[in-house]
Amino acid sequence: MSVKNEVLNILESNKGKTISGQELADILDVSRTAVWKSINLLKQDGYIIDASSNKGYSLSISSDVVSEESIRMFLNEEFKEIPISVFKSLPSTNTKAKEEAISNAVHGTVIFSDEQTSGRGRFGREFFSPADSGIYMSIILKPNLNLSSSVLVTTAAAVGVLKALDKFTDEKSQIKWVNDIYINGKKVCGILTEAVTDFESGTVESLIVGIGLNVKTKMEDFPDELKDKAGSLLLNQNDNSIRSQLAAEIINNILSISENLENKEFLKIYKNRSLILGKQIIYTKNNKVEEACAHDIDEFGRLVILKNDGKIEHLSSGEVSIKNIVQEK
């Protein structure tokens, strides 16, 4: 680890507290000049560091630059050693994660970017991912699943995100099947799960769980076509320097749930916090738009619908909208 990263690690672990340059130098067994150079490099990276010639250096509690160190310090002990790569900008964290998965990245590998220039959602839609305001990351999982069961991972990931949000806001978040998180009727998070498969065996070698979460994106910054649909987690809150801690909490939850998918306890939470169960929906299947009632979520995470002719059907993919919301828009 470079001196710069070691200094950052100490400052992150003591956020808001002042540590003298000499103390940092002694801990790292380097010169005070090396510490001073590292502090300046961190400032150039955007970290808010208060410096006093008499007291030392303090990483401001309002500093919200996300780094490998800032995420790792909030991870559960069993996940402390997972590989984490943090980038200033990427076209897409899922694309980067796929490349890493093909190169045999291990289970739990995390790719995080401060912004995405070509962020993707389901059906190839663009996901608005501006710098300094959201969590855009992908987690590589190595589940023992076949392709038909992979929707269960998206379901589990949605619950993992929801449980993390509950720790940082009093606003109730809900899940719109299969992969969107809503607060107060606005979408704040999308999840895109993509598989790297072994075509010969039909098994999933890796699953890439991509998460795009609007943490503090201002309403005026959203494109016009999203202003009536998208929201942010901390839109009305002052404490908005939480991205590292929130990202870590999401990672903790998803990795924990993914290791115990077979017990399917998370499905109870998913159903309880569903935005659509019991409501009339409009869904698209095989390029055909139909209406039905969202009846249940089955043990594989599929949406169980009750069609107007009384027949039951299970959806594992497709576009779903709540009927009255569509009509109002």
From TrEMBL:
UniProt record similarity statement: Belongs to the biotin--protein ligase family.
EC class (word): ligase
EC number: 6.3.4.15
PROSITE patterns xref list: BPL_LPL_CATALYTIC
Described purpose of this protein according to its UniProt entry: Acts both as a biotin--[acetyl-CoA-carboxylase] ligase and a repressor.
CDD domains: BPL (cd16442)
Residue ranges constituting the BPL/LPL catalytic domain according to the UniProt record: 68-262
InterPro entries hit by this protein: aa-tRNA-synth_II/BPL/LPL, Bifunct_BirA, Biotin_CoA_COase_ligase, BPL_C, BPL_LPL_catalytic, HTH_11, Transcriptional_repressor_C, WH-like_DNA-bd_sf
UniProt xrefs under SUPFAM superfamilies: C-terminal domain of transcriptional repressors (SSF50037), Class II aaRS and biotin synthetases (SSF55681), Winged helix' DNA-binding domain (SSF46785)
Protein name: Bifunctional ligase/repressor BirA
Keyword DNA-binding attributed: yes
UniProt source species: Sedimentibacter saalensis
Residues that, per the record, bind biotin: 92-94, 116, 120-122, 187
DNA bind region: 21-40
Phylogenetic classification of the source organism: Bacteria, Bacillati, Bacillota, Tissierellia, Sedimentibacter
Gene3D superfamilies: 2.30.30.100, Bira Bifunctional Protein, Domain 2, Winged helix-like DNA-binding domain superfamily/Winged helix DNA-binding domain
Alphabetical GO biological process terms: protein lipoylation; regulation of DNA-templated transcription
Keyword Ligase: yes
Catalytic reaction list: biotin + L-lysyl-[protein] + ATP = N(6)-biotinyl-L-lysyl-[protein] + AMP + diphosphate + H(+)
